[in-house]
Automatic annotation (TrEMBL):
Gene3D superfamilies: 3.40.50.1100. Residues 77-415 form the Tryptophan synthase beta chain-like PALP domain. Keywords: Amino-acid biosynthesis, Aromatic amino acid biosynthesis, Lyase, Pyridoxal phosphate, Tryptophan biosynthesis. Pfam families: PALP. Transmembrane segments: none annotated. This is Tryptophan synthase beta chain. The gene is trpB. The modification N6-(pyridoxal phosphate)lysine is found at residue 113. It comes from the Bacteria. The beta subunit is responsible for the synthesis of L-tryptophan from indole and L-serine. Its EC number is 4.2.1.20. Coiled coil: none annotated. GO terms for cellular component: cytoplasm. PROSITE patterns: TRP_SYNTHASE_BETA.
Length: 454
């Protein structure tokens, strides 16, 4: 095997279609339910929030969905993204493992999020929508959608979780540079926000609260649609461009992953890398271990309940069956803002229930220690969210060392941490605390789950 470090695809190798894992599932995922009737939702129920093209993608069972040429044209600015062999990290760990990472931080906004933001902006523009409303935690999604809206001439309104709004002023500035209006959530602009502030004027916010605000704005304005950065099927579908490229790049490396790892908050970057490989696994073409890594402070897969729940705190969204900590759950203010979500994507949750994937939880101090070790070996400073995947990759590489076994590890480095240096400063200053969420608090949040006969 050569000493090659990076595996680059030509623009001509950019995938022409997204991969839909639903086509290969041994059991179909549970339906999305209307919160009022408890019956499966139809296109008309979702039309106030999403353009019809995205609603069709949400429910399709076709294995492939064509990527429109205007979307591919934007993708070409940074896609195909590089795959790297982490040779210096391997040497540092003295491990027989072969470690590869797919690097999504090369996008203009610095993460994997534009893969779906560009697609969503395109489909909304096609339907004549004037503006998009959304939520953001760490700001990676908000800045990606702001950029995509600028590309397609749409207005963009972002409700940013208040703690992240205060922690990450440069992310906020980036969104505003792209032309977005950024509002700290909970805010006084919506009924949902005012209700939260009436109960707790010092609320640090949550993704669930910010979603409620954005959904409310879209539902009340016929010229505004809602845009979501993770969780839903069409979002995960758009992200599969990552794994489809990685399949080609692993072939270039003449290697096959034994272990595939991704950080998991709502599930989009994990699914983006893993789903094309899981498709091969479901078809009997390979059999890798696939590991979703979540923060111990927001452990929806490892400690949540598989149940129907709202995607937001205000109960404005349809009911989806997912691993959830309860829509009233407000996580502690850890720095991995993109992973602070009460639920996991329904498709990721379904695969976990089927035993197709594994899940582990990592504390933020271990995650940041891993990120620093990675940065000193590979030169790239990962986003706090990505550090969780790095930590799990290091665990597996060190296990290979202990067992004297060479395995191939592939993980998604979903974004860079250039806007997150305050988090690293806090880590070096010893200010980061590990937070094990108490069982009684999880039980209290789960006690409010909606009653569903399904």
């Amino acid at each position: 095997m050569s000493d090659r470090i990076k595996f680059l695809l030509e623009e001509s190798a950019l995938p022409t279609a997204w991969y839909n894992i639903v086509a290969d599932l041994p059991e179909p995922p549970p339906p999305v339910l209307h919160p009022g009737t408890g019956q499966p939702v139809g296109p008309d129920d979702l039309a106030p929030l999403f353009p019809m093209a995205l609603i069709q993608q949400e429910v399709t069972t076709e294995p492939w969905v064509e990527i429109p040429e205007p979307v591919r044209q934007v993708y070409r600015q940074w896609r195909p993204s590089p795959l790297y062999r982490a040779r210096r990290l391997e040497q540092l760990l003295d491990t027989p493992a072969r470690i590869y990472y797919k690097y999504e931080g090369v996008s203009p906004s610095g993460s994997h999020k534009p893969n779906t933001a560009v697609a969503q902006a395109f489909y909304n523009k096609q339907e004549g929508v004037k503006r998009l409303a959304t939520e953001t935690g760490a700001g990676q999604w908000g800045s990606s959608l702001a950029m995509a809206c600028a590309f397609f001439g749409l207005e963009c309104k972002v409700f940013m979780v208040r703690v992240s709004y205060e922690q990450k002023p440069y992310r906020r500035a980036l969104m505003e540079t792209y032309g977005a209006q950024v509002i700290p959530s909970p805010s006084t602009e919506t009924e949902a926000g005012r209700a939260i502030l009436a109960k707790n004027p010092n609320s640090t916010g949550s993704l669930g609260i910010a979603i409620s605000e954005a959904v409310e704005v879209a539902a009340k304005d016929p010229e505004t649609k809602y845009s979501l950065g993770s969780v839903l099927n069409h979002v995960l579908l758009h992200q599969t461009v990552i794994g489809l490229e990685a399949l080609q790049q692993m072939e270039m490396a003449d290697d096959e992953p034994d272990i595939i790892i991704g950080a998991a908050g709502g599930g989009s970057n994990f699914a983006g890398l893993a789903f094309p490989f899981i498709g091969r696994k479901l078809r009997g073409e390979s059999n890798p271990r696939v590991i979703a890594v979540e923060p111990a402070a927001c452990p929806s897969l490892t400690r949540g309940k598989y149940a129907y729940d709202f995607g937001d705190t205000g109960g404005l969204t349809p009911l989806v069956k997912m691993h959830t900590l309860g829509s009233q759950f407000v996580p502690p203010a850890i720095h991995a803002g993109g992973l602070r979500y009460h639920g996991m994507a329904p498709l990721v949750s379904h695969l976990y229930e089927l035993g197709v994937i594994e899940a582990v939880a990592v504390h933020q101090t271990e995650a940041f220690a891993a990120g620093v070790q990675f940065a000193r070996a590979e030169g790239i400073v990962p986003a706090p969210e990505s550090n969780h995947a790095v930590a799990a990759a290091l665990r597996e590489a060190l296990r290979c060392k202990e067992e004297g076994v060479s395995r191939t590890i592939l993980f998604n480095l979903s974004g860079h941490g250039h806007f997150d240096m305050q988090a690293y400063m806090d880590y070096f200053a010893g200010k980061l605390e590990d937070y094990e969420y108490p069982e009684e608090e999880i039980a209290m949040a789960l006690a409010g789950l909606p009653s569903v006969n399904a």
